[in-house]
């Protein structure tokens, strides 16, 4: 048992203490504000407050103000230098006291990243209204490629265990977490007469002869639809004993929402076949971020087609607008969201690859919405980073090595159309298969 003292317990403090010690300490812990009880206890103990206490014979961690505040304020810019893998990193919330067990406030730092505090401050949105990696503190301080929270917590718990040998550190278990977003269920089939004729005309008048030939051959049933890669994926999952999650876009046609119509028999048949074997979730439309009433309609639609409750989601285009997006998800009964990743960069957007409950800063409340961080996405690798399949594989293997070292989930997102071996995706099947073989070892 570890005893933790602080002057007063606010939701922010309770939240981050729970995340750190539930994930990285094998022993139980207790929080107290009773100074006499803490002073007299013979348990392993640590206290957290702005100034050290001369009467306490316990580990001291100097507290910044963040966990004792409410509301959103500018983030202090002062940093402390801390070594990770023999490299110096600048971490926010430096400690001035030489008695502090760490040169920075690890509780405040972890809370800042997990709560996505910076995304609640003013920022310049990208073309799709998103908070981009290029504006993040993690990129600014060069630790986006690391599960920085995991690493720091591991260091911290081991320091405690050195002083109190009865404490047992805990390392998160490595797990491969595959998922697929179904933005375009079919390339050509099932789209309806008007959309088919529009696509045929567009390909003809723009001179896309290869695509036009593929479309005609597919409609004539001379070739399989390019994007119908579900059987291929199923064979991979059986080989590696994987149960990935599929996210289906059920929105009506719009500029950025162009899936096969949900009224098509192909759509219903595919959803039901996938849902019979794997967990599924909702891919909330691009529009639903601006018109929240669409979210319930799209969720109801997928529940009707799949004939099962839908409790998981991932935003189309990874569009997150905090706190509104997550509040909307909670309102319609979503329990787990998989959108916590960047479109423009791979890495650890929230500083960790471990699931965590979302903290609603606008209401100073720990919510029941579980966040599953995303590390790697096919579109990021090919379109944003401009990597070849071979280059993408090397980067993915680097992340695999990092996650295996520190534990937690290696969350990977691909799209069914990324395996079509055509239209710019040549070589990505082989890349994915080689990556799975390495990840499964």
CATH architecture of the largest domain: Alpha-Beta Barrel
Biggest sheet strand line-up:
9-8-7-15-14
Intertermini distance: 36 Å
Tally of contiguous helical segments = 14
The CATH homologous superfamily name of the largest domain equals Glycoside hydrolase/deacetylase
User: How helix-rich are the residues, as a percent range?
Assistant: 25-40%
Describe the protein.
35% of the residues lie in helices and 17% in strands. The protein is α/β, with parallel strands linked by helices and 441 residues long. It is elongated. A hairpin with a 4-residue loop joins strand 12 (356-360) and strand 13 (365-373). It has a five-stranded parallel sheet. Strands 2-1-3-4 form a four-stranded parallel sheet. Helix 3 runs antiparallel to helix 5 (148-163) and helix 13 runs parallel beside helix 14. It has helices at 11-24, 35-40, 106-114, 137-140, 148-163, 193-205, 209-219, 230-240, 265-275, 293-306, 324-331, 378-384, 389-406, 428-440; strands spanning 2-6, 29-32, 45-49, 59-62, 79-84, 87-92, 175-182, 245-248, 280-282, 312-313, 336-340, 356-360, 365-373, 376-377, 409-415. It has three domains: 2-163, no CATH class; 175-187 and 225-440, Glycoside hydrolase/deacetylase (TIM Barrel, Alpha-Beta Barrel); 194-221, no CATH class. It contains 14 helices and 15 strands.
Task: Please sum up the structure shown.
The chain has 441 residues and is an alpha/beta fold. Helices cover 35% and strands 17% of the residues.
């Amino acid at each position: 048992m570890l005893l933790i003292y602080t002057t007063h317990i606010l939701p922010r403090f309770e939240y981050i203490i729970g995340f750190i010690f539930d994930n990285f300490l094998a022993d139980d812990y207790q929080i107290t504000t009773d100074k006499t009880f803490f002073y007299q206890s013979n348990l392993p103990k640590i206290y957290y407050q702005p100034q050290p206490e001369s009467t306490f014979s316990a580990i001291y961690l100097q507290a910044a103000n963040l966990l004792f505040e409410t509301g959103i304020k500018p983030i202090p810019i002062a940093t402390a230098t801390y070594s990770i893998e023999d490299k110096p990193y600048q971490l926010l919330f430096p400690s001035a006291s030489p008695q502090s067990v760490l040169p920075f406030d690890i509780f405040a730092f972890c809370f800042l990243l997990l709560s996505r505090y910076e995304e609640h401050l003013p920022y310049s949105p990208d073309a799709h209204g998103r908070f981009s990696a290029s504006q993040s503190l993690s990129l600014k301080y060069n630790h986006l490629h690391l599960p920085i929270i995991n690493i720091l917590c591991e260091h911290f718990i081991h320091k405690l265990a050195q002083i109190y040998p009865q404490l047992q550190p805990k390392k998160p278990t490595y797990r491969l977490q595959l998922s697929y977003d179904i933005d375009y269920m079919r390339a050509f089939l099932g789209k309806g007469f008007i959309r088919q004729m529009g696509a045929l005309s567009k390909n003809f008048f723009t001179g896309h002869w290869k695509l036009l030939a593929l479309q005609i051959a597919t409609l004539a049933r001379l070739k399989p639809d390019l994007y119908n890669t579900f059987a291929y994926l199923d064979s991979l999952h059986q080989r590696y004993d994987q149960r990935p999650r599929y996210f289906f876009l059920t929105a009506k046609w719009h500029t950025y929402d162009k899936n096969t119509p949900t009224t098509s028999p192909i759509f219903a048949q595919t959803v039901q076949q996938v849902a019979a074997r794997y967990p599924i979730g909702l891919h909330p439309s691009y529009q639903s971020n601006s018109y929240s009433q669409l979210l319930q309609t799209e969720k109801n639609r997928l529940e009707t087609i799949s004939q099962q409750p839908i409790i998981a989601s991932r935003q189309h285009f990874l569009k997150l607008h905090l706190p509104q997006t997550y509040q909307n998800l909670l309102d319609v009964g979503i329990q787990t969201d998989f959108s916590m990743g960047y479109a423009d960069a791979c890495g650890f957007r929230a500083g960790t690859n471990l699931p965590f409950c979302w903290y609603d800063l606008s209401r100073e409340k720990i919510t029941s919405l579980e966040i599953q961080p995303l590390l790697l996405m096919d579109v990021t690798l090919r379109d944003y980073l401009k990597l070849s399949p071979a280059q993408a594989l090397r980067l993915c293997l680097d992340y695999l090595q990092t996650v295996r070292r520190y534990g937690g989930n290696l969350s990977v997102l691909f799209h069914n159309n990324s395996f079509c071996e055509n239209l710019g995706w040549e070589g990505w099947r082989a890349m994915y298969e080689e990556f799975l073989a390495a990840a499964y070892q």
